Amino acid sequence: SSPSLCQPEREAMFHRGPGLNLTSGQYTAPFAGYYTFSTTLHIARREPRRRRQGCRGSRLRVLICVQSCCQHNSHLESVSQLESSGDLFTISVTGTLYLQAGQYASVFVDNTAGSPLTVQSGSDFSAVLLGV
User: Transmembrane stretches, by residue range (predicted)?
Assistant: First the structure.
């Protein structure tokens, strides 16, 4: 007999460990150590295309920050130029940060484009303890 393909019954089946708070969007480190973080955001522009101004220099920054401090060596960052013709963007950030027990990390989006953006379903955020 061949193995059956396991289909998850609900999204929460992929939530493992006590650190992720789905309400606040923060991952709190249960232990001090090095964590690898990853996020992939699917972002849609909500403004109709005909109302947009072709603003050069418009960019989208996605950051994973420790304790909401997005400075110095306490964050991971990815920057993407926004094309004036696009309606949907995908941007990813992956890297390693050191967290003390009880510190949290969360995702921030810095939108310099001026047009409203929406994070779409299918986006993700994960953290894995690599070692202490």
Answer: none
> pLDDT tens digits, residue range 27-67?
999 999 999 999 999 988 876 555 545 555 578 889 999 99
Helices of type H across 16-70: none
Separation between Cα atoms, residue 60 and residue 113, nearest integer Å: 7
CA angle 52, 54, 60 (to 5 degrees): 85
Report DSSP letters for 81-110, one per residue.
EPPTT-SEEEEEEEEEEEE-TT-EEEEEEE
Place of tokens 């110095």: 72
All domains of the chain in start order, with CATH: 20-47+55-131 (2.60.120.40)
Q: Give the whole-angstrom CA distance, residue 16 versus residue 18.
A: 7
The whole-model pTM stands at 0.76
Rounded CA-CA distance 63/46 in Å is: 21
